[in-house]
Structure formats: C-alpha cells, structure tokens
Amino acid sequence: MAKGKSLLLGFLAGGIISGAIALLNAPKSGKETRADLKKQATELKDSFEHVKENGKELSEQIINTSKEAAKLIKELSIDVKDSLESWQETIKPHQENIKSYLKQIEERLNELENQTKTIESK
C-alpha cells in the first residue's frame, strides 16, 4: 500500500509543478486566455448551430425531392403503360396481316416443294 501512496503523491506533486510551470510560461494572462477560450467556444457553438440548420434544410430538400421523384416515376410508369397499350392496339391489325402473309408463303413453299418432287420423279 505504501507503494500506491507514494505513487499517488508523485503524480500529485508532478501535476502541481507542471501546472505552475505552465502558468509561468503562458504567453497571455489568465484573463486573456479565458476571453480567448470563451470567444472560441462561442464561435464553435455558432458553427454547430449553422451546421445543424444546414442539416435540417438539406433533410427537408431530400424529403421534398424524394416525394417529387416518386410522383414523377408514378406518372412516367402510367404514361409508359398507356403507350404500350396504344402501341399493341396499333399493331394488332398488322399482326393478323403478317400471319396471313406467312401462311400464304408457307403454302406456296409447299406447292413448290411438291412440284419439285414431281419433276424429280419423272
């Protein structure tokens, strides 16, 4: 226990001596140092308030932008859906024509194939 007591006394004495040396070597008086610290604390507080206000504004802007983006995406998806339905209606008659032409081509190819077989067999 004696070791712990002497160690504690050593730390206490060292703290007192280093504090006295710091006060004697300080470039400014205590009053000036306290005034500077108070000024810096006020500036830091003002900076934090400014950052806090900017953060709130940014948060509100992000929320508003997100809402607008969601609305625009919904409108865009409705427009795309309507356009696709309109396009499908527009091409529907042409699909029937294409199917008809393909059927005619297939029939003519079958006829040509049969004619070719007939010619080869002679």
UniProtKB/TrEMBL annotation:
Question: Where is coiled-coil annotated?
Answer: 95-122
This protein's record includes keyword Coiled coil: yes
Q: Does the keyword Coiled coil apply?
A: yes
Q: Give the UniProt keywords, A-Z.
A: Coiled coil
SUPFAM superfamilies, alphabetized: Apolipophorin-III (SSF47857)
Protein name (Swiss-Prot/TrEMBL)? Gas vesicle protein
Q: What lineage does the source organism belong to?
A: Bacteria, Bacillati, Bacillota, Bacilli, Bacillales
